[in-house]
Amino acid sequence: MSSKLALSLAAALALSAASGVARADPIAPHSPSNDEIDAAETGVPASVDYPNRKTSKDSPTNVEINAAEAGSPDSPDNKDQPPLSTDGKAKQAWRKLERDNPHSTDDHQ
Fold this sequence. Notes:
By secondary structure, the protein is mainly α.
């Protein structure tokens, strides 16, 4: 065996041994308890236990739901609402309302 090859093998062996020692971590891995997992996942909808953690104080009341859906065309309370007219009057009324709004997205002001 040539001296260059032997030197290269010795250097590779020394580096390999040094990296193995450097990777050895004296701190043992921590396995979280169920309480730690529950605390970390509280409020995370993707958690498997999320429905079980939800308390009644987190659930909205019917009054809160109705208030949030007031005026929404997708609300079940608006199922009998007549469709918007397609004669152009609604768009004209909207443009009139938006005329002085600096944040309007209407480009025909």
